[in-house]
Amino acid sequence: MNTPTVPLVDPQVLDRIRGWRGYAEAKLGFRNHWYPTLNSSEVAEGQPVPFQLGGEKLLINRIDGKLYCIKDQCLHRGVPLSRKLECYSKDTISCWYHGWTYQWADGKLCDILTDPSSKMIGTRSLKTYPAQELKGLVFVFLGDIEPTPLARDLPPGFDEADRRVQPFRRVVNANWRIGAENGFDTTHIFIHKDSRLIRGNQTMLPLGFAPNPNSKEPLFETRHTEGGNIGVFDLLAERGVPHFEGSVHGEVVRRAIHGGDKHIAGQISLWMPGVLKVDPFPDPAMIHFEWYVPRDADSHWYIHCATKVVEGPNADAEFAEEYEALWKDLYAHGFNDDDIWAREATQPFYQDDWGWLKEQLFEADACIMAWRKLASEHNRGIQTAGR
């Protein structure tokens, strides 16, 4: 029997939204998509690790090197299995409360330690989710359909053969959509005007961009990857006018910091189910990817990945050393920390859903509207409460 779903978004708000209702409904993200979760190194053999995704509590385990993901909730009385992990065989997990025992491979209730003669045995199964590894990340398919190829939910270039990845995961107390729109918003670079990355990496970043009044070219473009994913390119930086001075009443009150002549963030794109690509960033030799993974209605996992093509037998170790020595401070904290507090400052305005109607977007936000519409039309389902 399916658990009744609970409306997450105020129905009065949904009734007034046109063109992107599906996105507005997706407070917990999209169903039937792949999401990154833990780092591969965090899941040791036979050591289950809890993770919350789309409002659901999951357990991820490694058995004989293979990854498994099971719902972290006993069918009997609904307690989390992770409260006290008890695995009496490598292929099963038992509930600490009454001994209900499930197989990791298919979730089947295979034994009940307190009543081995129960007729329930073999007739019930706990929900399981496909899991696989790529570039040091554990991806979980949060869905009910036959899982699509992982490539369909990846941004272009992430799975490039020699591309080395340094992931960094944090909890941000804002809905995942606030995160996605913060990253994709071209003029939000204003909050980075004092970032130590600008001087520390000799980069150049304007205060913002404005649409070119003499151009009729669109400020966004929808594209597909070879793997079958779909995303929106924000072309404001390419087709707009950069501004290096900010004026109030005609008087210049702020100038952009010019750290050097390195050009970054030439192409910015946002892909389903919510992953940003910035090419190049934070250095001309690197590409930045960041996922906004829904945790619950009011928070998301911010998984940002510094990447670089490095060849040779020691490539992973060399890039890891470079990241720790330079990029973790200048980029992960010196730049991306700005985005975290901006999202958390935005969250209260949208928390009751009415912010989606009260907001007053301007011309430079065309790419955000394009993303909302694309996500509404091309998702494979809405993640709902009560699953």
TrEMBL record:
The keyword Zinc-finger does not apply. InterPro entries: Cholesterol_7-desaturase, Homotrim_ring_OHase_catalytic, Rieske_2Fe-2S, Rieske_2Fe-2S_sf. It holds the Pfam family Aromatic_hydrox. Gene3D superfamilies: 2.20.25.10, 2.20.25.680, Naphthalene 1,2-dioxygenase Alpha Subunit, Chain A, domain 1 (3.90.380.10). It comes from the Bacteria. Keywords: 2Fe-2S, Dioxygenase, Iron, Iron-sulfur, Metal-binding, Oxidoreductase. The keyword Metal-binding applies. GO terms for molecular function: 2 iron, 2 sulfur cluster binding; dioxygenase activity; metal ion binding. Residues 34-140 form the Rieske domain. PANTHER family: BLR4922 PROTEIN, IRON-SULFUR DOMAIN CONTAINING PROTEIN. This is Carbazole dioxygenase.
